[in-house]
Amino acid sequence: MTTTTSAPVAAPTPQEFGVGARVTLAVMRDDYVDVILGALRATDVSGLTVATDPVSTFVGGDEQSIVRFLVDLTGRAAASGAHVSATITFSRGCPGEVACSPTVARASEVPSVERVGRDALAQWALYPLSDAPSADHMRDIYAAIDHAKELGTFAGSEHFVTNLRGDLADVIATAAAGWVLVGRTVPHVTSHLTVSLNSPSVA
Amino acid sequence: MTTTTSAPVAAPTPQEFGVGARVTLAVMRDDYVDVILGALRATDVSGLTVATDPVSTFVGGDEQSIVRFLVDLTGRAAASGAHVSATITFSRGCPGEVACSPTVARASEVPSVERVGRDALAQWALYPLSDAPSADHMRDIYAAIDHAKELGTFAGSEHFVTNLRGDLADVIATAAAGWVLVGRTVPHVTSHLTVSLNSPSVA
């Protein structure tokens, strides 16, 4: 039997680790206020901290609940039939604006969510923000893009972004999966996704 | 007189260095298609490569021209009187989706643009993506936020983002300035800005 002088350190909670997202819903119709506020009111916020400001809605909590919230919220807005653009930022490892205390990564399960039967187009960027000597941010990004190809949502490469297309749930889950997977080795990771629903540009 | 066996290396052009931006304009009114396409058609694209896809518009060129384009485009959309949300991504140092060949930074002038007399709210995030041994991405972000305070657009810190408020031109120029300033020492830098115009949430 071995003994140790240091007490076991509890893994940080999602809140302590700054696991969260921001979403800006844009609804391109005259009744956008009713659609946006109606979707926000109807979406289940169990286990989450949710705060809406004039530019976006912050949602903090565990990865699975965040993904469920985002799929539900954007799906409800799109159910209005209006053209909807949702700008989503995932972040982990930096609890405040710039209070990046974590120096170790936090392993999480890849969120899974059921398909909702709604087609989405999106553009995605993933940012591993590692200052470690082993940092190789493009290696991590390539791995996440390979994961998107496995999921079937990869729809091509463009300047600065990866195009995604598929069921709304799969598209949001792809961006979240890359974020969680890179987050197993990099403490501070963000992922940006612009989702287009009911686009008149798509047949 | 000294001689050298290596030919002088020309600095990369903005295009070669992958200097560019993406913008998604969301206009929250029934006539959004006319407003968005009208703004895109009316905005001067001199010296720029512009390509619109179903999710966003890519604009490549020098920093000054990109900022002028973005201020003009978003200002024209807002001149409709509709509530407008613009999602902007600046990128440098990664010409393709993941083709990050540059290993040295590229110094550029901080873009300057005249005020347009239109108030904007925004949330801003800046990502220095350095793998160098000297990497300290939070040091670079702190410096950029200090710069926003000097410009007078800093409006507080939130989870994952910095709030900006001020003339539309100053708000966009703030995000571009942080991007260019960090870009003097870090090859690959992106900056994300969500701009809200004519918001009913603001008195």
Automatic annotation (TrEMBL), chains A, B:
It holds the Pfam family Ykof. Residues 19-97, 121-201 form the Thiamin/hydroxymethyl pyrimidine-binding YkoF putative domain. This is YKOF-related protein. It comes from Diaminobutyricimonas aerilata. The lineage of its organism: Bacteria, Bacillati, Actinomycetota, Actinomycetes, Micrococcales.
